[in-house]
Predict the 3D structure of the following.
Amino acid sequence: MTINKKADGTELTVSLEGRLDTTTAPELEAEMNSCIDGLTKLTFDMAALDYISSAGLRVLLSSQKAMNKNGSMIIKNANDDLMEIFEVTGFIDIFTIE
Amino acid sequence: MKGPLEMELSIEAKTENLYTVLAFIDEQIEKAAPPMKVQMQIEVAVEEIFVNISQYAYAPNTGMAVIRVDLADDPAEIRISFIDSGVPYNPLAKDDPDVTLSVEERQIGGLGIYMVKKSMDDIFYEYKDGKNCLTITKRI
């Protein structure tokens, strides 16, 4: 997985490419832990993300919980397969998906 | 019509082997030419189940897992069995997570197997001859 971060003041866009799974989720978790404090807006761009498992959902959920305290989180450009996973797991109601 | 195809991988159950397992699964299921969506659902299911076995079946030690892929023609379906000799554990006996809870209340535990249940057409567990055997079936 490739993680690209683009910051604009206290707003951050994280673009994910490849697979967010058991093996790669810890990388994203570490990245988020190092930068999520103080953010007012966090955007995950999933245009190039092919795959997500529960390990990836766990990181998104903890990011959402962190952002609820002082900002907002948005997921954008998720493909149909990812959308279906968000739907069956109920995350479609939890995340703000554009 | 060709007969059913059955292939088997025997591998140490540890998370580091996930990609080896997925490569084996992809190679086998490609023969059935499933749609991309089905392929991804199967990969997610395989990941959730294999990682569960890796983390819990033999903890704190490790042990082997056998993964068997069976491609059937009529009806066209993919069956994948996971067999381990670890502690008896029926993942289907666990209650489904409440997927309607709010973000603060949501827990991630049990979500993996729930995703498997939702995306596969059938899931069957049995404990037999000292082994856990979990079989998922996906029609294509």
